[in-house]
Design a protein that fits this description.
This protein has one domain. The longest helix has 10 residues, at about 5-15. With about 100 residues, it is α+β, with helices and mostly antiparallel strands. The chain has helices at about 5-15, 90-100; strands at about 20, 25, 30, 35-40, 45-55, 60-70, 75-80.
Length: about 100
């Protein structure tokens, strides 16, 4: 796995490798507004995870996920630590916790 200097560098590389969709977290699923697609926890795999400490603002931490759906759709999810899990279902939190190894 690469060591990127910034989230922008990682996103640029992931886009070049076909991770085109932009996902956001919902309570029970991931959602891509541009494509109007919802992915339940069992419908996607987290391929790669990148963590960035304090790049955009002091003290802020970002996590970037590279995701592939069961149908082959590739995309990314990026969030500031703590913002993602607040309104997620147990299944979504469990899915993200299975991959995060800090």
């Amino acid at each position: 796995m690469e060591n990127y200097q910034s989230p922008e560098d990682a996103l640029d590389n992931l886009r070049k490798r076909g991770y085109e969709a932009d996902f956001a977290t919902g309570t029970y699923c991931l959602y891509c507004g541009d494509l109007d697609i919802r992915l339940d926890p069992e419908d996607f795999h987290i391929d790669e995870v990148y963590r960035f400490e304090g790049n955009a603002s002091p003290g802020a931490s970002f996590t970037l996920y590279a995701i592939t759906s069961s149908t082959g759709l590739k995309g990314t999810l990026m969030y500031t630590d703590g913002a993602c899990s607040v309104n997620m279902s147990f299944e979504m939190v469990k899915k993200s916790n299975n991959i995060i190894k800090y």
